[in-house]
């Protein structure tokens, strides 16, 4: 059964408990880390690993008290980071996930929850590379985690308990909302929310281009499009907001907006969006097969 976990970002979000290791600290893992700090998790409770000394120094300067290990200085950085951790968040590229699982396997404690934020790598593939019985959670996050408004799909592996699922979901508490789904639905989650920010940015691009075509200066058109999409997003973020109701509130009978929506419907825009989501889901399945 699908479940929305109570992890929407708010001033009352509870800090995650236990020590958390972030293996790889690119934009996604850094966004999750920053969300935890905002929710009250002490930097001293977290360790991050990166590939280069320069990146390690950057993160230490940005997040005082955070332990950051660089692999070019210490090839055992990942294993040292997971030793004694309650949660290990894998944030490397999909092609490197199973190799990372194999490399840290000897250092993992039996109850450490391994959380993957990588697309396309299946639970089965990761479990095969981890110690037998290791708790594992696969997630599908999106880039608005960077601004505290992320959406995360979460699926538990074969050996994870309900308590451990909640522990994994708490990692995202400061930066997004978590929806628990069966693993077979994660590609659909990716097609809607994982790729979804790009759809919104694409819309803003198209709106700005339309404004230029109608005679606006490019900078003016871009400002109007950008702020309109951002403002509409904030309205949708209000608890209980219904996009259909919000749309209807702007659409006066026989008005300009009604004419625009009619043109979108005539062009088959809903079907175009559905086709795009299907294409994204199909590509995710292809990537899973390619990654074995």
From TrEMBL:
Keywords: Amino-acid biosynthesis, Cytoplasm, NADP, Oxidoreductase, Proline biosynthesis
Reaction(s) catalysed (UniProt annotation): L-proline + NAD(+) = (S)-1-pyrroline-5-carboxylate + NADH + 2 H(+); L-proline + NADP(+) = (S)-1-pyrroline-5-carboxylate + NADPH + 2 H(+)
Pfam families registered for this protein in UniProt: F420_oxidored, P5CR_dimer
Every Pyrroline-5-carboxylate reductase catalytic N-terminal domain range: 19-119
Any one Gene Ontology BP term: L-proline biosynthetic process
MF term (GO), any: pyrroline-5-carboxylate reductase activity
Pathway per the UniProt entry: Amino-acid biosynthesis; L-proline biosynthesis; L-proline from L-glutamate 5-semialdehyde: step 1/1
EC numbers, comma separated: 1.5.1.2
Family: Belongs to the pyrroline-5-carboxylate reductase family.
UniProt function note: Catalyzes the reduction of 1-pyrroline-5-carboxylate (PCA) to L-proline.
Name of protein: Pyrroline-5-carboxylate reductase
Species of provenance: Arthrobacter mobilis
Gene assigned in the entry: proC
């Amino acid at each position: 059964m699908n479940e929305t976990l109570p992890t929407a970002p708010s001033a009352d979000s509870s800090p995650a408990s236990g020590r958390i290791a972030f293996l790889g600290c690119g934009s996604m893992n850094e966004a999750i880390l920053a969300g935890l700090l905002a929710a009250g998790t002490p930097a001293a409770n977290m360790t991050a690993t990166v590939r280069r000394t320069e990146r390690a120094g950057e993160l230490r300067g940005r997040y005082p008290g955070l332990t950051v290990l660089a692999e070019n200085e210490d090839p055992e950085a990942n294993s040292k980071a997971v030793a004694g951790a309650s949660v290990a968040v894998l944030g490397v590229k999909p092609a490197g996930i199973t190799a990372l699982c194999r490399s840290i396997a000897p250092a993992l404690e039996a109850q450490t929850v391994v959380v993957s934020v990588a697309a396309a790598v299946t639970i089965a593939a990761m479990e095969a590379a981890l110690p037998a019985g290791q708790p594992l959670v696969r997630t599908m996050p999106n880039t608005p985690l960077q601004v505290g408004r992320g959406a995360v799909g979460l699926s538990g592996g074969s050996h994870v308990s309900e308590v451990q699922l909640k522990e994994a979901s708490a990692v995202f508490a400061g930066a997004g909302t978590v929806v628990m789904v069966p693993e077979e639905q994660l590609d659909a989650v990716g097609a809607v929310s994982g790729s979804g920010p790009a759809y919104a940015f694409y819309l803003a691009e198209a709106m700005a281009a339309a404004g230029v075509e109608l005679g606006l200066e490019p900078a003016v058109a871009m400002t109007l499009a950008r702020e309109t999409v951002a403002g509409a997003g904030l309205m949708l973020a209000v608890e209980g907001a219904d996009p259909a109701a919000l749309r209807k509130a702007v659409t006066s009978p026989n008005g300009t907006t009604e004419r625009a929506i009619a043109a979108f419907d005539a062009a088959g825009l809903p079907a175009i969006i559905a086709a795009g989501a299907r294409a994204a889901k199909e590509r995710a399945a292809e990537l899973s097969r390619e990654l074995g």
